[in-house]
Amino acid sequence: MKVEIRWNTAAKQSLMGRTGEVLPEYDKLYKYLGKNGLFLYNHAAELHEVREYAKSLSVFEQCVRYYNDMDVQMLLADNYKELCQYDEAEKHLKLAASMCPGRFMPLYQLTELYTATGRTDEARTLARQIVNKKVKIPSATIHAIKQKMQELIDREEGINVPASGSRMDVESFNKTQPGQDCLSESRTPKDLLPP
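RESULT FIELD:
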């Protein structure tokens, strides 16, 4: 119980922008919570936040033994992308998309990866799938994603697109928030905070 209180305190301090300061506490707590999937996810996400991508991957290797969902796969993909390991990033984005087929964000990020790595035909094909994908729960996030994907298609097909690009900023939605489930694209991360 005392260990979970320490984790809770560290997590709250991190939410207040003190992530770098609390990482030593996470390292100490690892000794006691190293088999708790939610702790491992939280620890790996904190490392990701401070751009310690290789260390984050190392903690995620442990995490997937106890806890593995779409959010884990999305952060794994982002770590690999930041380390320029694009094949691994693609693999984890595809796995995330298959875990929650109704979600748009894994497909959107996969399209962004294809675009960034010059795979424009694959990006355009996936963008078409996203534009035609049925929306179960409408949201501003999904609207922005569909709009940006339509602009990508139009640009690739030579249709005049305003230079300013999308009116809605998908990038503000681009980071996966821990605690999102398969029902909503914009649920808050409160579910994965320690008790």
